């Protein structure tokens, strides 16, 4: 399933990476500890987090994530957004909690397996 | 090591808890290795290891550098910093052990996973440290030599 379809179903707000929405979402990973995400997330994952500072962009870029989903209507910090635009990393915002958004994305990806 | 490296370069890392550009060195290293045509899984492994080493320098040292050397069958990464050093390396290597301050933890760093991650994703890992001077990591990640041009 591509990013665009996930965005539509979950009604996510796109804050950056508009030109990367055809990217294939291969899986997901939820976490706020950056070392945990570095070690355990995979290429093509959608990363679900509550962290909004600029270092999330480097993590997503190094791990080649499909994008970052910020939960609870958290907006990216200004420098986070600038970095994400520069590096072409999609940042998406959901009004749902981390628990709920993770469950929905999980079910969505499972359905299309 | 007599073989002439395919790449040999050093990158300086700003320390002192300034996270503004944390990850930039690792991003440069990743770009270099990708351009050299190394396999994706090797590149991602090196990126992870260098990122953790970079974050450690930012978090705990005044300044430091990361040296990257690529030869036909392996990638060598060295992280050398000037800083507080580690009094008890065995303790520092324990998963979850951390001396990070509150600010660092709030950002999602300092969970006591960095050195463990480096060790897990390296083929060879060596750490030495001197209190009040700094820490030196030597890491080797093996590659498939046929993948290099």
Write a structural description:
The complex is a heterodimer of chains A (about 110) and B (about 150). Chain A is α/β, with parallel strands linked by helices and about 110 residues long. Chain A has one domain: 3-Layer(aba) Sandwich (Udp-n-acetylmuramoylalanyl-d-glutamate--2,6- Diaminopimelate Ligase, Chain: A, domain 1). In chain A, about 40% of the residues lie in helices and about 20% in strands. Chain A is built from five helices and five strands, in the order H-E-E-H-E-H-E-H-E-H. A five-stranded mixed sheet of chain A has the order 1-5-4-3-2, with helices on both faces. The longest helix of chain A is centred in the last third of the chain and has 14 residues, at about 100-110. The mean pLDDT of chain A is about 95. With about 150 residues, chain B is an alpha+beta fold. Chains A and B meet through helix 2 and helix 3 of A and helix 1, helix 2 and helix 5 of B.
CATH superfamily of chain A: HprK N-terminal domain-like
DSSP strand tally of chain A: 5
Q: Tell me the CATH superfamily of chain B.
A: Histidine kinase-like ATPase, C-terminal domain
**Helix percentage of chain B:** 25-40%
Count of runs of 4 or more consecutive helical residues of chain A: 5
Q: What percent of residues of chain A adopt helix (DSSP H or I)?
A: 40-55%
Distance between the termini of chain B: 20 Å
Would you tell me the overall average pLDDT of chain B? 94
Q: Tell me about the largest β-sheet of chain B.
A: 5 strands, antiparallel
Question: How much beta of chain B, percentage-wise?
Answer: 25-35%
Q: Mind telling me which CATH architecture of chain A this is?
A: 3-Layer(aba) Sandwich
The fold-level CATH name of chain A is: Udp-n-acetylmuramoylalanyl-d-glutamate--2,6- Diaminopimelate Ligase, Chain: A, domain 1
Number of domains of chain B: 1
The order of strands across the largest sheet of chain A is 1-5-4-3-2
How many helical elements of chain B?
Answer: 5
Uncertain stretches of chain B: none
Oligomer: heterodimer
The averaged pLDDT of chain A comes out at 96
Please write the CATH class name of chain A. Answer: Alpha Beta
